[in-house]
Amino acid sequence: MMRTFLILVVLFLGGTVQGQVTAILGAFRDEVDLVRSQVQDKKEVFIQQIHFTEGTLKGRKVVVALSGVGKVNAAITSTLLLEHFHPSEVIFTGIAGAVDPDLSPGDLVIGVEVGYHDYGALKPDSLERWSTRNPITNEQNPLYFPSDARLVRLAYTVSQTTKLERTGVNDSTAPRVVRGRIITGDEFISSQAATARLYRQLGASATEMEGAAVAQVCWQQKVPFVVIRSMSDRAGDSAHMDMDNFYHIAARNSASLVIGMAGKLAN
Questions:
Q1: Are 62 and 85 in contact (CB under 8 A)?
Q2: If we measure between CA atoms, which residue out of 28, 98, 95, 100 comes closest to residue 65?
Q3: Which residues pair with 51 in a beta bridge?
Q4: Which of 151, 201, 220, 249 would give a disulfide with 226, using CB separation of 3.0 to 4.6 Å?
Q5: Number of domains, the chain
Q6: What is this structure's pTM?
Q7: pLDDT-derived band at 7, boundaries 50, 70, 90
């Protein structure tokens, strides 16, 4: 009886501590290293060869990890993260291509919702988009996974006082921060025609390669999440060149916002 009681106490206390952790993910090493460089009292953990950094960021307990590029890598890392660290929320940071023609490199999109643009049935001249399904219940997931409203509000509030770098593309104004729809696929979009079609058909603000996979894992496990992306390019014909030119500024802008969020979550 006493042994059972002690086990229950340990489990309860452990769950309480773990629930106070914010998880931060990014696809590229530079994006993650920007956040890791600010983490204090670091503890490095390797699970299935994936590197997780535990510590404190602006007073908030965090775990930071590199997911790698693409949906499968993002899903693997997210699953291990939730299983081993039990975070209270997950924030994904990094770069993306602008789908909304009003957005420029350096601007930020806070993902109100995140969905796939490449999941469904391929028709002769189009893609019939499908919802994914929960593999356990077989229930349909949302076509677009809604980000946690509290995290979206927090991100936007923090963005108003975060110093963001300008790219030189449009130095007359500071980088814009908008709330919008982010779409995910295992394709780097570098076509003006394709981008225009995605904007017209899906009403997306930005496109990237990991967010919806993270969102699906979090949604199915009932963990709050938000995806934050800074534009490195306009996903047009010169996307590769633009990404080379603006990647570092975009990565720093997204990381700066996420670091600011950690400070507010600590309060």
A1: no
A2: 28
A3: 46
A4: 151
A5: 1
A6: 0.89
A7: very low
Asked whether residue 13 is assigned to any structural domain, the reply reads: no
Mapped to the 3 state alphabet, what secondary structure does 224-242 carry? CEEEEEEEEECCCCCHHHH
Question: Within 10 A of 217 (CB to CB), how many other CB atoms are there?
Answer: 21
CA distances from 18 to 88, 174, 205 (A): 8, 38, 34
Task: Report d(CA 225, CA 219) in Å as an integer.
Answer: 8
Residue 187's domain is classified under what CATH number? 3.40.50.1580
Separation CA 42–CA 252 (nearest Å): 21
Burial of 108 (0-12, 13-18, 19+ CB in 10 A): buried
Alpha carbon distance 226, 131 (integer Å) = 19
Q: Which of 6-15, 87-96, 105-114, 248-257 has the lowest mean pLDDT?
A: 6-15
Q: Within a 13 Å sphere around the CA of 53, how many CA atoms are in the beta-carbon half?
A: 22
Catalytic site positions: 31, 233
Q: Above 70 in pLDDT, residue 17?
A: no
Asked if 233 and 122 touch (Cβ cutoff 8 Å), the reply is: no
